[in-house]
Amino acid sequence: MAKRQLLLLSSSQLHGYEFLEFASRDITDFLSKNKVSTVLFVPFAIKDHNAYLKKVEKPLNQWGFKVEGIHNQENPVDAVEKAEAIFIGGGNTFRLLKALYDTKLVTAIRTRVLEEGVPYMGASAGTNVATRSINTTNDMPIVYPPSFEALKLVPFNINPHYIDAEPNSKHKGETREDRIRQYLEEKDSCTVLGLREGALLHVEGYNAVLKGFTGAKLFVRDQEPVEMKIGEDVSYLFKDCA
What is the annotated localization of this protein (predicted)? Predict the structure, then answer.
């Protein structure tokens, strides 16, 4: 089996930065290290595929990479099988996963990434679908995919855009932590890594390190959440969640 290579961003944008700019060094290093010249972009989480493609092209072209939209390819599965790298962008996770199933890309992407080592980048919804399931997404179920099971490129779940509760807030609704704890009450749940805005997870094989500007919070069933700092090695998640 080839080495798994993933770059999973909590979001595409961080306050004070242009689109993808906060992760520019990590993205360019990730793609350059793998000798990638052209990235296959999957825009299915947003309705206007062409507009989304142009938005992604701007920074990646500036950094020296070409971008091809999978929606412009005659056969999406063939496009994945020929891709040098795959990038799935954010938007609505339910819409995205349904499209991946409809186009028969779930198995195709999983095979290329896990068995052939093709680099995979995800942002927001693209990070959600890289995990075991989309049960911990923040999105509304505007469409219904045939399953909540996702690409399973990692054996745990991620909650992108993780937000800590404001202690002085007058809002009395459920916090993000409350909702993740509710998920963990289910018998088929798995560990959840809450990635704050500006954080990302870099995976090589069974090694995983937190990068970016902010940290994360780890949620494990029947345990108190644990703070994770940038630069922290979380490779043990592959063993604990297998």
Answer: Cytoplasm
pLDDT tens, position by position, 88-100 = 999 999 999 999 9
Q: Which domains does the chain have, with CATH numbers?
A: 5-240 (3.40.50.880)
At which residue do the structure tokens 């509304």 appear?
140
- pLDDT (average), residues 31-41: 97
Please, what is the Cα angle at 31 between 25 and 32, to 5 degrees? 85
- First-to-final CA distance of the chain: 17
The angle formed by the CA atoms of residues 110, 115 and 119, to the nearest 5 degrees, is 70
Q: Does 25 score more than 80 pLDDT? A: yes
Beta strand pairing status for 157-162 and 86-88? unpaired
pLDDT at 1 over 80: no
Q: Give the DSSP H/E element, type plus range, for residue 29.
A: helix 24-33
Question: Strand (E) positions, 110-173?
Answer: 120-123, 157-162
Catalytic residues: 124, 139, 161
Neighbours of 235 (CB within 10 A): 15
pTM: 0.95
Give residue 115's pLDDT.
95
